[in-house]
Design a protein that fits this description.
Strand content: 35-45%
Shape: elongated
Number of helices: 0
Order of helices and strands: EEEEEEEEEEEEEEEEEEEEEEEEEE
Largest sheet: 6 strands, mixed
Radius of gyration: 28 Å
Distance between the termini: 64 Å
Helix content: under 10%
Oligomer: single chain
């Protein structure tokens, strides 16, 4: 270490959630100090998600998997000819967990409401919902559901101090003894928590049904045996509009109740 200036603090290793901001800092005393941050022996330059490469504070925002390294360091120079190189510091990123959530879109009054979230080992869950519902169970059950349980349920998961996006599922609770069979003419899957799924009222009375969606050109876009009101306007086949999203338009369906009755055919208008 130079006798003309001192490197007082060293950069500190850190483990962060992917996409957050990493900051490496040093402090030094002396005159005419200059800084050069590096990974190993490769000089870093400002640009993209990296800034402060020639200052006492290096910033990486947002962090990506490519930024992970075990040997971030800085060279500090001053009036004296000898430069000082800091100790190495590591940057590790924890990937933000992802979830898949589900529930029956429509259940009968007095039945159990089952909420489901995908399993992550050693993760913690946080559910909220109507009627001040709170649960930290991965897949909680609400027994003897009633009108107070109608609404949108939200869940997030925390894993290694990183939290997932908040996901939601909408549940309706109905009087099944007076439930009419009804197929709507359209729905709006725009993630606003309202009418996001194509709900066939009374379909639960026909557990062996087969439901198929086609484009106007006859291309099969969606198919499910024992359909349970979970179609959200995405396609499992054919052309889509942005990932697996289907564009606004009219689509055709065929529903086989498989109870000896004729197939039901019709159109659905999808609006986003």
């Amino acid at each position: 270490m130079s006798s003309c200036f001192d490197l007082c603090t060293q950069p500190i290793s850190q483990t962060l959630c992917l996409g957050s901001t990493a900051n490496f800092n040093v402090s030094a005393t002396g005159t005419n100090l200059t800084y050069q941050w590096r990974i190993g022996t490769v000089n870093l330059v400002d640009g993209g998600n990296i800034s402060g490469t020639t200052t006492a504070s290096l910033s990486i925002n947002p962090t990506t998997l490519l930024d992970a390294a075990a040997n971030y360091n800085v060279i500090v120079s001053g009036t004296c000819p000898a430069a000082v190189t800091s100790l190495d510091a590591a940057l590790n990123s924890t990937i933000i967990p992802t979830l898949v959530v589900s529930s029956d879109s429509v259940i009968c009054i007095g039945s159990d409401l089952q909420l489901n979230a995908s399993f992550l080992d050693s993760a913690t869950y946080a559910w909220t919902g109507p009627n001040d519902f709170i649960s930290n169970i991965q897949s909680p059950t609400i027994q003897d559901a009633g009108a107070m349980q109608i609404g949108t349920y939200y869940v997030s998961v925390t894993y290694m101090n990183c939290s997932s996006d908040l996901l939601s599922v909408y549940v309706d609770v109905v009087h099944c003894d007076s439930l009419d069979f009804f197929i709507p003419e359209g729905f709006s899957p725009n993630n606003d928590g309202i009418n996001d799924f194509f709900v066939i009222r009374g379909i639960q009375a026909y557990p062996s049904n087969d439901f198929v969606i086609y484009s106007r050109w006859g291309d099969k876009l969606f198919e499910q045996h024992a359909y349970n009101n979970t179609w959200d306007g995405t396609s499992s086949f054919g052309l889509t509009f942005g990932s697996d999203l289907l564009p606004v338009g009219t689509y055709f369906y065929i529903l086989h109740l498989n109870n000896g009755s004729a197939a039901i055919k019709g159109t659905i208008y999808l609006n986003r």
